[in-house]
Amino acid sequence: MVHIPSSYVHDFWSCSAEPSIELSCLMPNGVFIPLEASRNATIHEIKEDLWEEASKYPLHGTLHEPSSYVFCCINCMAETEELIDEHRRLCDVKPFAAVLKIIERKDDKAEKILNGQITRLIGKGLHEFDSLKNSEVNYFRGKMKALADEMARNRQNKSWKERLYYRYPPRISHSSILPPPVSSKLIDGKFVLDVKFENTETKFMFHVQHTTTPKQLMVSILNKKAITLNTKGEHVSDFVLKVCGQEEYLVGDYPLVNFTYIQEALCRDVTPTLVTVSVKSVDVHVGKVLDNSESNEDTKQKHFSFSTLTLRKKGKYMSSWMIDENFTFRVSAICRLNCDTNRMVEVGVQAGLFHGGKSLCESQKTIEKMVTKDGECEWEEDLTFDLKVCNIPRMARLCLVVYEILKSAKGVRARRLKDSKQELYVNPMGWVNTTVYDFKNQLKTGAMTLYMWTFAEETQTDDLLHPLGTVVSNPNVEHSTALTITFHKYHAEHTIVYPSTEKILEFAELNGDRDLRDEAGARPQTSKSGLEHIRLIVERDPLHEMHEQERKKIWSMRYEVMVNLPTLLPKLLDCVEWNDHVEVSEITSMLRRWPKLPKEKALELLDYAYADNTVRSFAVRCLMDISDEDLSLYLLQLVQALKHESYLYCDLVEFLLKRALNNQMIGHYLFWHLRSEMQVASVSVRFGLMLEAYCRGSPEHMRVLQKQMDFLEKLKSTSESVRLRKDKEKAKNYLQETLTETHCIEAMSSVPSPLDPSYKCRRVRMDKCRVMDSKMRPLWIVFENDDAYGDDIYIIFKNGDDLRQDMLTLQMIRIMDRLWKNEGLDLRMNPYGCISTDNRVGLIEVVLNAETIANIQKEKGMFSATSAFRKGSLLAWLKDYNTSETSLNKAIEEFTYSCAGYCVATYVLGVADRHSDNIMVKRTGQLFHIDFGHILGHFKEKFGFRRERVPFVLTHDFVHVINKGQTKKEALEFQIFQKQCEQAFLILRRHGCLILSLFAMMISTGLPELSSEKDLNYLRDTLVLDLSEQDALTHFRSKFDEALCNSWKTSLNWASHNLAKNNKQ
């Protein structure tokens, strides 16, 4: 090797060198990037800076998350070196000529296998995420992978008991006060339970104090076993108590009566049955985490900040709050417009700026122009809004619609054009929304093409713009209308960014109303009249639109509200002028000090109306301590609330994933809530990315979920074949033959039920399976319980019906039941299990020993057209199964309570299409409703007339049972029934805000009967939240009397239903 004289060599790394150096970085996408960096920067810091700089270059979307790459250089030994340890500093590495090459990490075979398993499970290839070439997607995947890997590693280090809590989380009520329906079942503070032993026929009965813990009970069990069976040497630590028939364990130092299983059994007058099992037989294995130590070290250090030191020093960023210009963008052109090109079509584009569904300023529109025969139109027109950039909130969205001008509204969803002298109509043809800022807080600049969505047929709003719609562009880019727009660049050299939270807080401190703040703190007692006035305003009606004067009054007293009425935060947020950055800074500052809200109020802040990221983050902080039981109860809404998020990553996503990765039961339902909507184009990327993260964080659960997926796929293909066989007996034979085939036996053995994974199905009982009669030919499937002591497991598999609305209604009934029980009212509700697992595919829990009213009338009334009018049939049927006076009285009590509960629940929720085939009664007397295809007052019509004309179902045969067969109208039993209805209604009214907010979280999420704010008006009307409690009670009594007086109309409706059904058979 020839020695090069030192005078010819530039020493980049000498002590006298400058503190910074310009690196030459060759990216894996072929782009060359010069980067100024500190000599003392770590490799990790340089990578962060480099990725930030790369976002300004072409082909940035082709880059994955930074952890997928390593730096490579020629070191001082003239060797190629991969810089695996990213804690090293640049001055120590000394890359030759200050050149760094970025290369992908070497392939990992185990990683490829895992990726293949995830692809199969979530129904979307992970390569599709790569092919999006989207930097936000790549950022999200990197951040969530780091989270998932960390949680999976932590789980491996947990104790046996902690792993049990994860795999089989016990359902526990943490309240120190027992619900009255439970405490009323205790005799001298005691209750009875049965205990069985694993693999034996031995069973003991115990009378235990309700304060007894599982450990104390186990001591008693082993003592009794030692005396009775002469066993020795058994220790309490070697056994655990399991619920009979389920993979649910009673562990922890909690009183037995605090376990939900015990409470439910006592409420149903069923003796709780437990099984003692060896801890060795309980599977708490957790999956092995892939050892990507280098990558993990890389991601551990990441703060995923978009404001890195080097770039800050270079001063390339400017706060958007410094831009005093009005917001402007250009509408360039549109192509592939789906319109009738055989006639003259004039189209225009309307645009609006929105925040949380509310307009920030007046919308703007282009001039109308003719469309070419190719479905194209060009404008190149700037639209300027009456809103300065400095006042655009962080979560603002630009909403766009393309519309055509028509002379006639016939056959289209058109609106009359107000400003026109002629009779012209506007027909919306497509819409699309996009955020004003990108996921890195940067104001968008430059040209972009947005792919538009068509309007759904069931859309009820009269507005042209669709601000509650997704901000995701239509992924069907080849066939959807493409709109090209260009965002204005407000500074030639600087990137405009929304100020950080720290900067906002500094601004609020300097510009906030300090006098107002000090005044509120100094004299909290002086504003009692003002606070009472505010309370009256906001408690009048949650949907009440406040006047400008009321809003200003509340805003002026914001600090007093924070101190004295913190639960009124949602109303205060409605008073914020989100198009004024001074007020935005003020509320941001206040939220840092705002007292924690109860979970019901925190949930309210996650609906569509509260778009601000600081508000939503505050709501998530308030939910951090929510119990697993309560989280499971509200999980459906929280998943739907993700659709209102503007960006892939948010605090709600991380919260849900963390809780799911700490509790496999929550993980199970989160998985299926996400997986069931993977076919929905607007959420398939968001939900797919969350599913990928969950799978990476829970590899042991993946195997169980894949088993369930295989089981469901077999049932789906079988049901499609069964549907082709019209003959009932042939269909049943085909079903049973298919289930005996090896591939079905393998897929449907030893699988936890997707309805409730605590029930494990051992094998199918072919002889008990059948095809049901309804239109979509559901399958009635019966499994042998994996627990030898457990009863068979019955499920209904549905293919062809959308079960999402049923899930929502049943969940709301479950929540109502909880609210009633918390106030001592047990109405014997039966919100059976129901889960949607795919597009129009799902499972329903079978309620055994129950019949429809129609079948009871058929059995007792000879099923004629007049059977619906025969009031004695239902009571006679109950007498058949409750032969003693005691059991009959108990059955009538069950019927009375449950009838009251469902009368009120169906009235409040506006459950429609009620007939004798979707109301059922158990042999024990418990009444319940099924099939919730129509809610919120969307009543069916025939020949233009409403088929249902009563507020709720209260027929003569129902009253006959409640009155125990008495004919007198003013029977004491019926008066008690009416009091129960009134009490139940008033309890729901007191929680009206919660009920409304839970439905508001579901608006515009895909349910046809919950598409706009107008659908909430039904709840508002039934709960009469604008009235006093006494006036509301009077109103309800009038509805009750109406239902009773018009019960003949219900009977007539049922008679026609029975007759029509009889004619079809």
TrEMBL record:
Q: Which residues form the PI3K-RBD domain?
A: 188-278
PANTHER family referenced in this protein's UniProt entry, alphabetically: PHOSPHATIDYLINOSITOL KINASE, PI-3 KINASE
**Protein name per Swiss-Prot or TrEMBL:** phosphatidylinositol 3-kinase
Q: Which GO terms describe its biological process?
A: bleb assembly; cell migration; phosphatidylinositol 3-kinase/protein kinase B signal transduction; phosphatidylinositol-mediated signaling; regulation of chemotaxis
Q: Which domain of life is it from?
A: Eukaryota
Q: Which SMART domains match?
A: PI3K_C2, PI3K_p85B, PI3K_rbd, PI3Ka, PI3Kc
- Positions of the C2 PI3K-type domain: 323-488
A Gene Ontology molecular function term of the record: ATP binding
Organism expressing this protein natively: Clastoptera arizonana
Report the family membership: Belongs to the PI3/PI4-kinase family.
Q: Name one Pfam family in it.
A: PI3_PI4_kinase
Query: EC number(s) in its UniProt entry?
Result: 2.7.1.137
Which CDD domains does the annotation name?
A: C2_PI3K_class_I_beta_delta, PI3Kc_I
Domain PI3K-ABD span(s) in chain numbering = 17-106
List residues of the PI3K/PI4K catalytic domain: 765-1048
Per its record, the protein catalyses:
a 1,2-diacyl-sn-glycero-3-phospho-(1D-myo-inositol) + ATP = a 1,2-diacyl-sn-glycero-3-phospho-(1D-myo-inositol-3-phosphate) + ADP + H(+)
Q: Which InterPro entries match?
A: ARM-type_fold, C2_domain_sf, Kinase-like_dom_sf, PI3/4_kinase, PI3/4_kinase_cat_dom, PI3/4_kinase_cat_sf, PI3/4_kinase_CS, PI3K-type_C2_dom
Q: Does the keyword Kinase apply?
A: yes
Keywords attached to this entry: ATP-binding, Kinase, Nucleotide-binding, Transferase
